[in-house]
């Protein structure tokens, strides 16, 4: 038997290289072989850190008898959903159409033409509950293929038509007028109210268990809070009535401590964000020892995680924590809430660099499973501890073990820090240099050090070393935003004193500049490394979906890969040490919009270039675990328009040769001037009018971009201290070194040294030179 998986780029496929199953990777040759043999295709789709994928592999794909049944009657194909997201999406639609729900491992039975006719997820080796044995399924499907081929043909024709219709349903269902106009403030208010209808006041988050961290929705709510005047009310600028009293100094810190909503939208946005962040940050889903969060919580309380750690979750968590910290700093720069927000920023950024970076890239994920003392793979064994082990490291600090029925199958208990919730709600417990945050005490530090030393001795979870462009870009953006927030600049002024809070959790000096400079330099380095992998500056850029080492994976880059890559470049460009050029970003954007959009009655948007075998180009606007390609592209259009590309002189942005792209087409809205980009932004976001009120949990990133698009603010400055103020202000969309606004003579309006100019569109303020004047302009 030929081992076709031994040299593939996917770590997931290589996990199956020694199976007795005669696996093929996804290819036209595999389907041609199925046609030659006249057998159906068995598609098994998963990813390397998928717990139930491991279980099914061990129970069935490593079993000689089951493998023999598969090899005799099927052409088996293994697919890494992360390398080939368009293939995964196509068959996931089929699975959901047949079963009403999806998941991984995904098990699809298809014709040699790729048409699905039976589907499921995990099948056990013997009947279990309502699940048939995998051998029963294999035998039944094979018999149907042999004896009732006409039924199979009829079913596949129906499914093919349904999947083709599904691929174009979103664009076809949108009248032109619905997609051409940005959502209004009233519509965004309604979306926030609809989202809050599913808020869990006892434990934060939305809906019931299992709970996924709703990070994009949290950023949406923070933006709604700012738009509704939450941060200005806290300064007394519109402090009238109940809202003014609740947001007044001395009162605002009490909001969210018990998690219950007040019935006022502006207050409820802040309460839901605070409660959700606090519950996640203090629970077991958040790794209290090393930092970072797991993929989701099995229980409602955020106590027991599904232990795999994904790069995209942690990147989005860092982005959301930065946005939260900006709001808390505007409300009260000496509050417990800000201390917690900055703890999440610092620990998550540190985790990304320490545990998920690899030289010039980020890895994709850390597995949920690792080897236990008996040498058997077990979920969570690298993280849980017994009461006896915990007693050895001491029980005097903040950390403690939590009990939950969801932890029944674990070999130990999960470590959490749930007393943070009590601390946040205790008005009588002071917070100052004499009374620091509980996670900074010597007892807690001893607990954390002891636990880390203990856990480091265990077998560690496997690392998925793939480089996913979309996820790397998300992480680079998050690191750059964290660096900007904390003042990553050699010239930043350390003013100290009142109004600043350090990341250690007590009022005092400004944030840890050494850490933030590391984050900024890492972001700059990793974005440059991506450019080099795609061909390098001065070469023709060929964006790819994934790499393993320096070898590209089999999948073409999709819209989400392109958009997140460009967004990362825009964000990195705001760092002082960056040399990213606007012309490069424009060239990349022109290529992206040409390849993934098309003009029609509405703007058609495609998520992928289309698989050469299936020939279907998906178009799904839903923000799921990551932003959709469409909403990510909308962020690119928004940020590029704010740069003011029409007149950008790119002052100070030298050092890179221009980047050319491989696209030969013209962008559908080939006017990528500021006005053209704003129109494109509105057409990309207008689609979400249909989803905003009915399914806001499925368009959090799009709603966040819609909030930002209503009143984007950019600050043009080269002054380090004014830059620091701007990067920490929750209303600012973009920081630039130039105004991007043409002067009367056609040149660009310059920013005088030592000043800042605040712009909204082409309307710019006069230059200001003091912190007080800049803050006043931003609060206007």
TrEMBL record:
Polar residues compositional bias, start-end: 650-664
Region (Disordered): 649-672
Pfam families documented for this protein: Thioredox_DsbH (PF03190)
Coiled-coil spans in chain: none
Every Spermatogenesis-associated protein 20-like TRX domain range: 3-161
Domain of life: Bacteria
SUPFAM superfamilies, alphabetized: Six-hairpin glycosidases, Thioredoxin-like
Protein's recorded name: Thioredoxin domain-containing protein
Species in which this protein is naturally found: Brevibacterium picturae
């Amino acid at each position: 038997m030929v081992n076709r998986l031994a040299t593939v780029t996917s770590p997931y496929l290589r996990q199956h290289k020694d199976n007795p199953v005669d696996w093929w990777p996804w290819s036209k040759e595999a389907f041609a072989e199925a046609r030659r043999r006249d057998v159906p295709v068995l598609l098994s789709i998963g990813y390397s850190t998928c717990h139930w994928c491991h279980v099914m592999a061990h129970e069935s794909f490593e079993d000689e008898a089951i493998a023999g049944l598969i090899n005799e009657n099927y052409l088996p194909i293994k697919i890494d959903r992360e390398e080939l997201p368009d293939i995964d999406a196509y068959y996931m639609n089929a699975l959901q159409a047949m079963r009403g729900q999806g998941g991984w491992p995904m098990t699809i039975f298809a014709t040699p033409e790729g048409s699905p006719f039976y589907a499921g997820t995990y099948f056990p080796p013997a009947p279990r509950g309502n699940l048939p044995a995998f051998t029963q399924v294999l035998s039944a499907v094979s018999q149907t293929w042999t004896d009732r081929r006409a039924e199979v043909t009829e079913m596949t024709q129906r499914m093919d038509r349904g999947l083709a219709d599904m691929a174009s349903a979103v664009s076809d269902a949108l009248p032109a007028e619905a997609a051409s106009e940005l959502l209004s403030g009233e519509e965004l208010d309604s979306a926030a109210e609809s989202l809050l209808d599913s808020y869990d006041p006892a434990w934060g988050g939305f809906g019931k268990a299992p709970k996924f961290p709703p990070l994009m929705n949290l950023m949406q709510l923070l933006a709604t809070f700012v738009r509704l005047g939450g941060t200005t009310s806290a300064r007394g600028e519109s402090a009238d009535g109940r809202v003014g009293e609740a947001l007044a100094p001395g009162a605002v810190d009490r909001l969210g401590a018990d998690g219950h909503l007040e019935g006022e939208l502006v207050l409820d946005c802040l309460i839901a964000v605070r409660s959700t962040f606090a519950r996640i940050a203090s629970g077991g889903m958040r790794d209290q020892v090393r930092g970072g969060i797991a993929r989701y919580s099995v229980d409602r309380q955020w106590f027991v995680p599904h232990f795999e750690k994904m790069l995209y979750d942690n990147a989005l968590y860092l982005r959301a924590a930065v946005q939260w910290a900006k709001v808390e700093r505007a409300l009260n720069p000496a509050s417990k809430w800000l201390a917690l927000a900055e703890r999440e920023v610092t620990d998550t950024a540190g985790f990304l660099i320490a545990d998920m970076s690899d030289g010039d890239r980020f890895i994709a994920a850390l597995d949920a499973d690792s080897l236990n003392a008996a040498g058997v793979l077990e979920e969570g064994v690298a993280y849980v501890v017994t009461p006896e082990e915990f007693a050895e490291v001491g029980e005097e600090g903040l950390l403690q073990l939590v009990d939950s029925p969801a932890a029944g199958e674990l070999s130990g208990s999960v470590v959490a820090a749930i007393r943070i919730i009590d601390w946040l709600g205790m008005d009588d417990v002071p917070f100052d240099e004499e009374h620091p945050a509980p996670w900074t005490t010597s007892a807690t530090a001893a607990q954390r050090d002891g636990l880390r030393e203990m856990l480091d001795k265990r077998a560690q979870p496997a690392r998925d070393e793939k480089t996913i462009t979309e996820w790397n870009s998300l992480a680079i953006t998050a690191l750059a935003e964290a660096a900007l927030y904390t003042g990553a600049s050699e010239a930043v002024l350390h003013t100290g004193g009142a109004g600043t809070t350090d990341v250690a959790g007590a009022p005092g000096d400004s944030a840890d500049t050494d850490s933030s400079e590391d984050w900024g330099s890492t972001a700059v380095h990793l974005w440059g490394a991506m450019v080099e992998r795609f061909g390098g500056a001065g070469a023709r850029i060929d964006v790819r979906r994934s790499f393993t080492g320096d070898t590209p994976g089999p999948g073409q880059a999709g819209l989400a890969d392109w958009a997140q890559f460009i967004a990362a470049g825009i964000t990195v460009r705001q760092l002082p040490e960056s040399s990213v050029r606007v012309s490069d970003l424009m060239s990349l954007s022109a290529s992206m919009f040409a390849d993934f959009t098309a003009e029609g009655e509405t703007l058609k948007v495609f998520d992928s270039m289309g698989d050469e075998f299936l020939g279907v180009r998906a178009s799904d606007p839903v923000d799921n675990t990551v932003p959709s390609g469409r909403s990510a592209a909308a962020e690119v259009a928004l940020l590029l328009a704010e740069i003011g590309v029409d007149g950008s002189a790119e002052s100070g942005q030298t050092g890179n040769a221009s980047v050319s792209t491989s696209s030969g087409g013209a962008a559908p809205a080939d006017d990528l001037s500021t006005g053209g980009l704003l129109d494109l932004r509105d057409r990309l976001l207008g689609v979400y009018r249909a989803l905003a009120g009915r399914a806001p949990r499925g368009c959090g990133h799009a709603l966040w971009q819609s909030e930002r698009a209503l009143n984007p603010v950019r600050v043009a400055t080269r002054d380090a201290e004014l830059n620091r103020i701007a990067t920490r202000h929750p209303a600012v969309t973009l920081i630039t070194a130039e105004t991007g606004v043409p002067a009367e003579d056609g040149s660009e309006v310059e920013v005088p040294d030592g000043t800042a100019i605040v712009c909204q569109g082409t309307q710019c303020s006069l230059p200001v030179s003091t912190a007080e004047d800049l803050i006043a302009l931003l609060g206007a």
